[in-house]
Records
---
Amino acid sequence: MPEVPIVMPQLGESIAEATILTFNVAVGDTVEAEQDLIEVETNKATMSVPTLCGGVIKEICAEEGESYAVGSVLGVIDVTEEEIQRTGVSTLAQAQEEGSDEDSSDEEEANLHFKQDGEAYFEPKAIEPNVKGLPVPMGKKGAHYISPRMRARMNELGLQAADISAINGSGAGGRVTVADLESFLEYINAWPSSPASPMRRAVADAMRRSWSRPLATVARPVVMDKLLKYRSEQNPKPGLTLYVLRALALALAEHPEAAGYLIGGHIVHPRAFDIGLAVQVEDGVMVPVVRDVDTKSVADLAKDYANLVDLARARKLTEEHTKGGIATVTNFGTFGLTWGTPIPLPNETLILGISAGVKKPVWSEQVEAFIPVTEAELNLTFDHRVIDGGDAGRVLNRVAELLERPEQL
């Protein structure tokens, strides 16, 4: 009976690996075409790996909790000739024939090997995640220069420059040497630790790349009473974040240069005002993108907003849901926080955060007395290479103005 491999598919344009969470089948199980066989986790979402044809599971040659590169063989299915003809899938025999024309490095990448008698077998090799971190305390010195030898050792361990910044170096000018690194690793070896999830590693990598730019934050309070009253009169009542999302899109439509992205000697301006929405999920944050926010009312945005939040929390976002944003809104006020400095994604210039509302006495010229109002802090972090504080201030002031006149949203 022909055998067909179960292969780790390409789960997104920028995804090179995935971690196996659960096998939904066992050896000996009968499966149908398009049946979900394996749950995997990428750095963006949880997805299913389906079978391309029906048959009987002959072998599972991967392990739960391990990461495998795209193209890795995860198992083998016994398939009938009729099913091969119906679905057009490639068999092991065809893979063997194609593999004989490839060099050994290509065979290793596909995890396909051949015995001397020509029999094909698979030996999937788990790969180390490409982003790692260490639980390190704050240090006073770090490595501004990394020697080739040190870089080679860091590459072996999967370390970034940020991972060694807490080590007190004994080299010239405080440079961290390989001996310093090995001593530090031995020192923390007995510390409690836990593996970082693909989501946590993805967030760490994005923030490391973001912080390579000169970022700055401006802030101002906004009085929320009119917005809260206006929102309470709507049926159904939209989420507060929707108003902030809409206000930012309108402000950027008036000042599109503020959302530009610096590439070499050019600033690329936005072609659409698609705004990301930070959604807290287990062990990280996901940022689905709401499309054409400047052209839709808050009521029109509500369905898109609810659907994207549900998909994010279920870890079902696809690349189509997350690409193309020009800025992000994060409502950290839901955690009771009253101030913050959010960090924009590497491919965005801006991120707007809003804090929890707090009752404060504010002087009123009309009644010549202090009156209680609900104030929230708006925090706008931006790439200082693209815009300056004045430009950021104009955007932020316009956002505040719109939130204090919610009927315009």
---
Amino acid sequence: MLRPKILAMILAGGPGGRLGALTDRRSKPSLPVGGHYRMIDIPLSNLAHSKIADVWVVEQYLPFSLNDHVANGRPWDLDRTDGGLRILPPYQGAAGEGFAEGNADALHRQAGLVRDFNPDLVLVLSADHLYRLDYRDVVDTHYEAGADLTMVTTKVGGDVSRYSVVEVEGGRVTGFEYKPEQPKTDLVAAEVFLYNADVLLETMDRLAAENGEGLKDYGDVLVPHLVEHATVAEHRHDGYWRDLGTIPSFWEAHMQLLDGTGFNLQEQGWPVRTASPQLMPAFVASAARIEGSLVSAGSTVHGTVVRSVVGPGAVVEEGAVVRDSVLLHGVRVEAGAELVRTVADDRAMVGRNAKVGGDGDITVLGQDSKVAAGTSVAAGEQLEPDSGR
């Protein structure tokens, strides 16, 4: 069989409201993960290792930092003459103009460009999940099943009502419920969808014409319609997979990075690629104490860091304690301050002898927020960007 022409589309336009202050000033796919990586690095790296080189990124909400990070796609071998990376912002003046009202709507607005590209298969990905997957295996499953759509599924623990819940029989998807109040299974869609291009385009056009309110999210009309009327196959993913779209899951994924139960950013043969910042190596003072942590380039540690991620350019001064926390770019923790179970966004500053967080819900410090010396921020609070306490 000839190798199919595959177009990968990363839907990177949503506002990421469940991440609160962390996405007030950036799109969710550009949120740092594991120090100097970004969320969008995960699907881009999987695509690079899977040898899929036609990649379109559909943007909408606050694309500036995402564009700066992705640039021409060089870290993922997408800076090429034929194919490579294409950024698709909202536009005016043609069919599909305006702002999308959901991920299926965002996909449909690019239908004209997809037709012009004329792929055999369209691989649709989200950019807020942590996983490692060879998409070529999904293609194999798709053809073996004679499917119109193949969705990657995985089992998750805990509350699955915030996912798309799937029922499967003999490798075929027989049931699909979008964020159900009472889930029937613990099997969910991992938001990796491989469509026959002609089926996708024809179905989107027909459903859009029938539905006066538009397609909105894929779970509202598009995927349920295909499950009922077409052949939808399952590709089961049994490895690590985690949704990073909420503050608790974002924090928990980082703790799993540190204790060895989660994702391996540098797995041999399949490392996560990124546009690394050009920074000096981290400086760790002789009196510093670091246990079970990731310390990024450009950071400086004089104090104590335990089971935490210290982002590029972050500073932990002498006598400060950072425990079970995630510090993003340029955070400063002054002498005597203490952070526990906290996510501190870019350039947040914690003053001398301040206390932030504690047992319970995760505390969030927004970009450029300031915690004054000697004050405290209780567990579970969120300081908005540029705010003070």
